Amino acid sequence: MRIDDRQILEIGADLPPHKDSIFAAQDMIVAPGLIDLHAHVNDGMGLFSLNPAEVGLRTGVTTLLDTGSAGALTYGTFHDYVIPQAAEDIFALLNISQLGVQGGRGPEPFFGELSDLRYIDVSAAVACIEAHRDRIVGQSSFVG
Is-contact 2 9, C-beta < 8 A? Predict the structure, then answer.
């Protein structure tokens, strides 16, 4: 198999040498990169977010869909600092809560992204989506 820094270029037996790397993959599974359609990778924000490196390339995942970790107030940081640092391609669903995913059911007082509906700001969500159409592909919300 012939590979470069990001992808499989060619698969076959006895590939001639070239400037790209040759990787012997006999007795291995060779597959295209996987896509994780439900991830929380806004590392450092909220209870559920992980570092993209922990759930990405290391596990065969080349593309991650972050499902609402960031809202309109927190998406800018996610876009400017988490996404560019990741080796994986990251796309996002924007949380309808301005805060994004923050907490979970636990000891009182309960604090979650939609524990108070005043956290919803449709105008802010629309403006954030418009500003970041390169990575935001939809909207996410969960009321549990």
Answer: yes
**Contact criterion met (CB below 8 Å) for 37 and 54:** no
Sorted by where each starts, the structural domains of the chain and their CATH numbers stand as: 1-30 (no CATH), 32-140 (3.20.20.140)
What is the SS3 assignment for 78?
helix
Task: Give residue-wise pLDDT tens across range 45-74.
Answer: 877 889 999 999 989 999 999 999 999 999
- Which residue did the predictor score with more confidence, 31 or 86? 86
pLDDT of the residue at 103: 67
Dihedral angle sign, alpha carbons of residues 66, 70, 75, 77: negative
Structure tokens of 31? 């597959």
Q: Are 112 and 104 in contact (CB under 8 A)?
A: yes
pTM of the model: 0.80
Distances (CA, A) of 25 to 28, 44, 77, 89, 116: 5, 36, 39, 24, 53
